[in-house]
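Running co-folding for magnesium ion.
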Amino acid sequence: MSLFLSVVPVEKALIAVRDIGAAMPEERLSLMDAHDRILSADVSANTDIPGFSRSVVDGYAVVAADTTGASEAIPAILRLRGKVAMGIPESPAVDPGGCVYVPTGGILPEGANAVAMVEYSEEVGDDVLVHRPLAPGENMVARGEDFRSGEVVVHAGTRLSPRDLGVLAAIGCAKVPVSVPPRIGILSTGNELVPVSEVPGPAQVRDANSYLCSAFVRERGGIPVPFGIVPDDREALKEHLERALNECDAVLLSGGSSKDERDICAATIADMGEVLIHGIAIAPGKPTIIGRARGKPVIGLPGHPASAFVVLMVIVNELMRAMTGERTGPRTVAARLAAPVPSARGREDYVRVAFAEGMAIPLFGKSGLLNTLVKSKGVIKVPASREGLEPGEEVEVILW
Ligand code: AMP
Ligand code: MG
């Protein structure tokens, strides 16, 4: 076995994870249980929404042309023909020269095409004086103006937000098709690791990655299943990995993903399946493994939490999208760079940034330091084709 990783471009690694990330099956959930789940099929309106033309103000339904030229001094004088009652479809019709009182949300009477607000109207005996001219369609919503029957209201791949759920309820979609969340096994490897509850001895460190990976998986619509810490021992790793693969749809390992003799992840994955990629042209995060064991995806992340996080964001994110069907992109913002960002051509660099006075400040730190993870607000990508970014250059910050 060679001492060096054979590094592939990020694009190739993304294709590999899309390929091994089988789409999860679908289930139907009540809207109350569907928040944050990924919609697995388009949902369309099965009737026009709203189902009837209605007023958006308290006022008088009129024929707009009757109000042409109306003003404070010379109002349009219309005969009041009656009232619309909420929830009742029958009402007097509006004829030229006539009007009908309609409350907010009330059905627009036959013949009307605009509504004069009560604030600009005045009832005098059997007449209504309208002091403003109205355009056709003013202060009303026409049937089907919100959604046409058959129109897609929420697209497959949407992570369902409170806004989506409210609209789905309004169109009468009581149950929604969503993808079953994948169960993702999480294992931290390393003889030096101790659980968060223990005080590390000299040369030991606390296991941060179990928490980092678990929360990330949850954020991306999966169910994390932590399997704890595994020593750098092939038999122990194999046993844990076997159990995780039995119980889960995919497994994330961290640590031991490089080529050191202790770095046993690739060898263990190869024993149980195949290593597809070992080494990605990304920084941080080069010693990453993409493999398949017992027919399921296994990703080996570098041990440094800051590196592991970049691999979660770029590679594991793509795997999760393939499995859940999520299509929503990351939230980004444009900003100008406050300082130069050096990089190597042929490698995709991810640099954490903070913001000050509207500028993106790159946060550099030695490999393995944690502080940039909490001090940063997001990350910028230096494409493989660039040798660096200039100060003042506009960049797209992918927000955490
Ligand atoms: P490795 O990828 O195993 O060579 O580890 C690289 C560095 O990351 C070492 O300093 C490890 O101690 C550290 N490391 C590995 N796993 C974890 C973890 N789960 N939590 C925190 N640090 C880790
Ligand atoms: Mg290690």
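Result summary
Residues 188, 190, 192-193, 205, 207-209, 254-258, 302-305, 368 surround adenosine monophosphate (ligand 1) (CB under 6 Å).
The longest strand covers residues 348-356.
Job closed.
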